[in-house]
Amino acid sequence: MPVAGGGRPALRPEPETLATLAPLPPAGRGPGNGTGASLRCRRAAQPTGLLAISILVAGVLILPLVFLLVEAQGAGVSKVASLIDRSLTAQLLWNTARLAVVVTALCAVIGTGAAWLWSGPTCRAGGCGRC
């Protein structure tokens, strides 16, 4: 990687360096893998273990909603309508909405602060290769 003044790696190669870089092979004419797929078109293997765990967690998290729907179906329409029409239901819905807004805002603040701290002062100044 070319080095700009000050010993830091340059964020972009110098124009003369760009002329010396070898171009990528055209799509469909990749090197020696026998399939003809170029390096640009190769995809990483799918993380099947992570997918299975994610589906399992999603299934567990949806169980309370399924239980609620089954119980509501057994109670009848008039009973469910009278429960929804109560003032306590409106208050609980309002509290849930406020909680969702506050949690979302806190997650944004904590996540942004953690990313800023993780990047470090060198990276924020443009001195590392990953920014």
Textual characterization of the structure:
- The protein is mostly helical and 131 residues long.
- It folds into three domains: 13-43, no CATH class; 44-75; 86-131.
- 61% of the residues lie in helices and 0% in strands.
- It has four helices and no strands.
- The chain has helices at residues 15-20, 48-75, 77-84, 87-124.
Structural descriptors:
131 residues, flat, mainly alpha, 61% helix
Molecular shape: flat
Q: Report the β-strand fraction as a percent range.
A: under 5%
Enumerate how many helices there are, as a single number.
4
User: Could you tell me how far the N terminus lies from the C terminus, measured between alpha carbons in angstroms?
Assistant: 15 Å
Topology overview:
Elements: H1 15-20, H2 48-75, H3 77-84, H4 87-124
In short:
The protein is mainly α.
